[in-house]
Amino acid sequence: MVVPGTEIPALIKLLDDEHPTVRAAVRKRLADLGPDLERLLELHAPAGSEPLRELALRLRREFLREEFLLGWADWMARPSSLAKLEGGLKLLATHLSAGGGRADEIASGIEARLDSLADLLLRLEPRPDFRDLADFLFASGRFRGNEEDYYAPANSNLDRVLQDRLGNPILLACVMMSVGARVGIEVGGCNFPGHFLARHQAVGNGPLYVIDCFNGGRILPAEVLIQHQPFAVPEVETVVRAEAPAEVILCRVLNNLEQAFEREGNGAEQRFVHDLWSATSAGVGDDFLRGRGGS
User: Can you give the residue ranges of every domain in the chain?
Assistant: First the structure.
């Protein structure tokens, strides 16, 4: 077994190899070395190879981005569902956490944390309803809206949201949807303008409720929300009554990320996320595209 880092000198030498197969193998191996690559380069790269160290880091980023785009193309081909939503959020988390761990570890960590939350809820309340779920996640303070750093990219990273217990409206709603599915409670997304909400409809086409996950899990009958909207926004009723598909939710997450990276001055990530949004939103529909949405 190769000890991580001891192969760095050999990889550095191969960075200039003109054969595409060799270069591809080197890029993959650099990516496999994970978030420790920069430290390993400092420890093991030969003296005077600083430009090649930078090249190694750049090649790793390029490889991870290409792998991500392949996964995203596969994700876009799937039918819309909660499983698709979770899959897209896991893919985004691996991209946003590219320096902090392997993709499979990040995805499995997300799954384990969601399962753990569901298990804890069932221990506390063996037969929970959607109100119990909202109380467990939000009224209890387990998860909170990140008011102090509302626009941070971490608020759109499911891995970080589950670890830090802080997020923006849309990611907190996604947590409610995912935990709800694990305990047999159907929760959907409400594509409300400017402030994403969760939604729950009682069995048998019963009353419809919206849940503001960012503000302590406040529950409101959908009829009340609709009645309090300005007459100038008649499409709000249609939005509230329709469950947001996975693609719409991910487009709003991407829009949040684009704004976050713009605020940070991270032009490369802003352009990348914008291109991703453009590709993803192609089949979403003109009504959504008109406002793009966010939060």
Answer: 1-77, 83-245
